[in-house]
Protein 1
Amino acid sequence: EVQLVESGGGLVQPGGSLRLSCAASGFTFSSYSMNWVRQAPGKGLEWVSYISSSGRTIYYADSVKGRFTISRDSAKNSLYLQMNSLRAEDTAVYYCARDGLGGWYIDYWGQGTLVTVSS
Amino acid sequence: QSALTQPASVSGSPGQSITISCTGTSSDVGGYNYVSWYQQYPGKAPKLMIYDVSNRPSGVSNRFSGSKSGNTASLTISGLQAEDEADYYCSSYTSSSTRIFGGGTKLTVL
């Protein structure tokens, strides 16, 4: 069974940093590209970042470019999101999400971790 | 980049069919057959319902179908059931190799 379990969320002050982790299991992690998608309270889904299966190709949404860094460790079956210079508008549930094999769609989602940016 | 355009809400009675539209541009929806649809219940993670415009993952009811014409994709749910009441989001691959989601549509089963 595919499982994606996020951790690392919490309350952080504006301008602060946070590192999210996603532990993957139930599939060959190194074969799949991964994403982070967020959802502000009461709002819609917003794609944040993508990393290819090898880790060599990375993309970011304009809203987080230069502040967030996505990475992966296949030895640990883990995906990460380093978030710096956080703003109030970054407050959201952050989902770790797996792409379909060879596809441009998300086939599995974690349950999400809440990040709150507030003083 | 602005979100894909979806109606904020749609409704239908049990047994009826409804269609949710998703309008983008030639740089996303119109340019690629990489449109997907997700169902989300309150407080839950989204679930994939349709991928690559019209393909259904294993386990998804055949009451759900997808299509595309030009820059607009559509999700049709036939034989509406109470359990279909949820939020629905479309998504597309873009010419910048990023993804973009629609604003979401709340489906109410009357």
Protein 2
Amino acid sequence: DAKTTQPPSMDCAEGRAANLPCNHSTISGNEYVYWYRQIHSQGPQYIIHGLKNNETNEMASLIITEDRKSSTLILPHATLRDTAVYYCIVRPPTSNSGYALNFGKGTSLLVTP
Amino acid sequence: AAGVIQSPRHLIKEKRETATLKCYPIPRHDTVYWYQQGPGQDPQFLISFYEKMQSDKGSIPDRFSAQQFSDYHSELNMSSLELGDSALYFCASSLEWNNEQFFGPGTRLTVL
């Protein structure tokens, strides 16, 4: 699986957009970009994933550059409950046996009042 | 909506003892994953099962074993426990055709 690089920590004011970057310069053509987050000591939570096109759901938006070497997760209106470690994970498409998640270091996002 | 259930939520054992952690996936999910998260560490993949067969193996020690049963629940068996096994153990489940993994609340294992 492609390696990802994320900043270790970021701050964001409550109500503002949080933009979390991820570099994945060795990504292969069929590999997806997934984002998960982990709120302190809870089980990780799926946020969003994408291949080439930008994606949006009720939690966040995912912007993938045209060369697919980097992406940005956007939380449009961060709240205090968004304080968590955010993981960018690159993985191949689904298979019959599924694929384990390779959690890297992640970005610790602190949302402040 | 039903979530992944893990039991027990907390477990305290002595060195060299054994422990069994249980995971009940979301109904109709056919794939189960086990992850270990040590203090201050990121989750590390241990092992996974699809349709009751081992599908992938990560950094699982030889002292650990796991299986998935006919009702799709899974158990992680840990023997000869060491202090370094103290960690949060997460189970996740997914559908074969949709690899979004849903995580349980974890079991916190403390080895004294």
